[in-house]
Specification:
mainly beta, Jelly Rolls, 228 residues, eight-stranded antiparallel beta sheet, 3% helix
């Protein structure tokens, strides 16, 4: 993929120790059934279940939520807990995510099938028919962190252009918008955090919902190789 913009861009860097963005618990984050998650990531270390964007809760009998996570090897998980199944971790499989390189990642669900994409290419799919996504117990949404009552897994690297949709985006739609910034009013877009403010401890949700996030520890830097 070629870059639309050849210049340094502000990005957030996460140290993998205690850095994350707290987005809280908002009604817009409780996507009913059809969902798409997207982000650009520059992964510096693979830690199983390290959160990229996640409100997954998975401890014993208590399971809920959705997320994009690292798989601890060389790929990602698209995690999803539906009302009729155990939580599923759809694996993008080996050698789909290279360390120290920017990748676009995405997960989609339409009520019947999960799919996971890396750089616009479908890496895995799984049939999963359900009436909707389960949110009990309801967990806060975070960028750069997976967290429940007894586990925390943190992302090390850079994250940009995080998108949460209440619709199932097609592969063609994902590919069309990979290398461009959104406006924030696109149909079905429920949360949009470009993470390009460059300063301060707040990241803005560019949708009309205004669900801004609070930065905890992550620091601002620049990237000249981000394809946006």
């Amino acid at each position: 993929m070629s870059s639309n913009v050849s210049s340094k861009q502000a990005v957030l860097t996460f140290d993998g120790q205690d850095d994350y963005i707290d987005l809280g618990n908002q009604p817009e984050f409780k996507i009913a059934k059809e969902i798409t998650l997207e982000a650009w990531v520059y992964c510096e270390a693979q830690v199983r279940e390290a959160g990229i964007i996640s409100n997954v809760f998975d401890t014993g009998a208590a399971k809920s939520g959705y997320g994009l996570l690292l798989n601890g090897k060389s790929g990602i998980f698209f995690a999803l807990k539906t009302s009729s199944q155990k939580i599923i971790y759809l694996n993008s499989k080996s050698n789909s995510l290279t360390l120290n390189q920017w990748h676009h990642i995405a997960g989609t669900y339409d009520g019947k099938e999960m799919k996971v994409y890396v750089d616009g290419v479908e890496k895995a799919n799984r049939a999963l028919e359900s009436s909707g996504i389960d949110y009990k117990p309801e967990n806060d949404l975070a960028i750069g962190r997976y967290n429940d009552n007894n586990e925390t897994h943190l992302f090390k690297g850079k994250i940009a252009e995080v998108r949460l949709w209440g619709v199932t985006r097609t592969q063609a739609e994902i590919q069309k918008d990979i290398s461009r910034r959104l406006i924030g009013n696109e149909p079905g877009l429920e949360g949009y955090w470009p993470l390009n403010e460059g300063s301060g401890n707040t990241v803005s949700d560019r949708t009309s919902h205004g669900n801004n996030g609070t930065i905890n520890g992550a620091t601002w830097g620049t990237a000249d190789d981000l394809q946006l």
